[in-house]
Amino acid sequence: MTKTRKWLAGTSLGLAVALSAAACSSSGSDSSSTGSSNTPQTSASTSGGATTGPSESSSAAAQPLSKSKITIAVPGISAASAFLVVADQAGIFKENGLEVTLNEGVKPPDTPAAMIKGSIDGASLTGTATKASAKGIDVVNIVSTATHEPFVLVAAEGIKSLNDLVGKSIVTSSPTNTPGTQTAALLRNAGLTGKVKVVGLTSTAAESAFFVSKQADAEYVALNQAMNDIKKRPGSTIIMDNSSLPTEPSDGVAVARSFLNDHPDVVKAIVKSCLQAAHMMRDEPDKAAPFVAKVFNLDPDEAKQFLQYQAKNIVLTPPTEKEFANVAEEYSKIPGSDVQWTPDVVAKAWDTSFQTEILKDLGYTS
Predict the structure, then answer these.
(1) What integer best gives the mean pLDDT of the chain?
(2) How confident is the model at residue 172 (pLDDT cuts 50, 70, 90)?
(3) Whole-number Å distance between alpha carbons of 366 and 360
(4) What pLDDT digit, counting tens, does each position of 308-326 carry?
(5) Radius of gyration of the chain measured on its C-alpha atoms
(6) How far apart are CA 287 and CA 269, in angstroms?
(7) End-to-end alpha-carbon separation of the chain, Å?
(8) Most confidently modeled range among 24-33, 177-186, 208-217, 328-337
(9) More confident residue, 295 or 54
(10) H/E/C letters for each residue in the chain?
(11) Average pLDDT of 249-262?
């Protein structure tokens, strides 16, 4: 069986804040999952007294959806999929008539084919979907909730800036995945290409182990992974994020275009849930904090810091033409790319008509 996390809402939708400091093996939006493919599915019903969902008294849905049980692939439970975790744990998916399984067992490069085949219904890998669309695979991104993915640079004690890493090393994902491409962009923009050694690994567990064991001087990884690795390597700190990079559509969901055509009501429910969860994370962080703390193994203060980082980049409006152009420019620099990237090629991978409609219904303005 593939590794999944299926969060089924119980009678009460609250969560107690978990204070464990266990390491979290999650990843950025295009990074490889580290879960074993034979790990059993786990279920967690919610209990406790935390404030939840958009409206506890409303019915699950006005009309039954054409498909209520869906599976969304995620590259590990990471900061880049936090909006999905919050939608699940806060009961937002259920409120909108959905029972969602977050599946960590599908390797990111395999998600487009899996969506076409129907073995999964969606994936939180908009970059992977965009690249697949450019190669003729008929998948489409349906929602974006941020302008930057939540990746940060963590460095060992005494290192305060990128310049301090000259002659040293950074561990991150492979160069064709989002953390790897962004690491290259950050170094290029700082004039440090070739002056800092970049080690690209294929799993978040390997990245963490490499940094924690002091084989690398820094790591560029998802925010939750960074916060947990800091605990394991005393003195290390977050020295920068990716806010200096151009804005791009981030932290969203893709589906097969056939799924969009066959189940528009389900796609609309997914988009609505994602927007409500992202809105909670940005504008009602006290409500989102207990869910973030539990799933990402953070204490209350760390959960607050996590959401402060996330809030800076959460944007609920659809991607712009300028952002599509930014993606095209970034992807054209990926080593070995055989696609002629243009803004139109990127735009073809997006259909955010439901996002625009639902923003108006919800009264969200940004």
Answers:
(1) 86
(2) very high
(3) 11
(4) 999 999 999 999 999 999 9
(5) 19
(6) 21
(7) 40
(8) 208-217
(9) 295
(10) CCCEEECCCCCCCCCCCCCCCCCCCCCCCCCCCCCCCCCCCEECCCCCCCCCCCCCCCCCCCCCCCCCEEEEECCCCCHHHHHHHHHHHCCHHHHCCCEEEEECCCCHHHHHHHHHHCCCCEECCHHHHHHHHHCCCCEEEEEEEECCCCEEEEECCCCCCHHHHCCCEEEEECCCCHHHHHHHHHHHHCCCCCCCEEEEECCHHHHHHHHHCCCCCEEEEEHHHHHHHHHHCCCCEEEEECCCCCCCCEEEEEEEHHHHHHCHHHHHHHHHHHHHHHHHHHHCHHHHHHHHHHHCCCCHHHHHHHHHHHHCCECCCCCCHHHHHHHHHHHCCCCCCCCCCCHHHHHCCECCHHHHHHHHHHCCCC
(11) 97
DSSP 320: P
The tens digit of pLDDT for each residue in 265-290 reads 999 999 999 999 999 999 999 999 99
pLDDT in tens, 333-348: 888 889 999 999 999 9
Paired tokens of 275: 């927007």
Residues 364 and 279 sit within 8 Å (Cβ to Cβ): yes
pTM: 0.81
Q: Which of 45, 209, 84, 229 is nearest to 153 (CA)?
A: 229
Q: Are strands 4-6 and 99-103 parallel, antiparallel or unpaired?
A: antiparallel
pLDDT class for 62, splitting at 50, 70, 90? Answer: low
| Burial of 355 per CB tally in 10 Å (0-12, 13-18, 19+) | buried
- Beta pairing, strands 99-103 & 250-256: unpaired
Structure tokens at 305: 């810091």
Q: Is 314 left (phi over 0), alpha (psi -120 to 50) or beta?
A: beta
Residues 178/151, Cβ–Cβ less than 8 Å = yes
Q: Between 254 and 337, whose confidence is greater?
A: 254
